[in-house]
Amino acid sequence: MATTSPDGGLDTGDSFGNYETICAIGEGGMGIVYLAEQIHPLHREVALKVLKPGMESAAIWRRFESERQALALMQHPNIATLHDAGTSAKGRPYFVMEYVDGLPITAACDQRCSTIAERLALFAEVCRAVEYAHRKRRGPSQSQASQCRGHRA
Predict the structure, then answer these.
(1) pLDDT tens per residue across span 81-122
(2) If 0-12 CB within 10 Å is exposed, 13-18 middle and 19+ buried, where does residue 109 land?
(3) Domains held by the chain: number
(4) Residue 152, domain member (yes or no)
(5) Of 16, 143, 126, 132, nearest to 67 (Cα)?
(6) Which of 7, 107, 123, 133 has the fewest beta carbons closer than 10 A?
């Protein structure tokens, strides 16, 4: 169970420069995404993705680095913007993205009682964002649908 750090953020056992983690909001095969707050020089909520502890293989590090470099090259209205990248106090790479608050796409559609046509139109938008991401990526391509902006509920 996560605890609170002395500065009020989530205690991950690590520190990430000008960012305080608030809570975990997602997890994949190689990384954990936190809702975080940038505390200097600006104050804003962000999404911070960090390589999981124990993922020290060179292949995993290269894949993570490839993902953050690819995200840095993307400028698309439906893909979260990369703000920053770095290495934690414990030596784990991380990157900081725009935080987009909202429900998962299926829950947002359910809440709005979206028709099949509306769901398909939204799905087509996501497909265009994923296709854009695949075109922009260098090296192995494995786009993350979680980095596509959904519609806010």
Answers:
(1) 999 999 999 999 999 999 999 999 999 999 999 999 999 999
(2) buried
(3) 1
(4) no
(5) 143
(6) 7
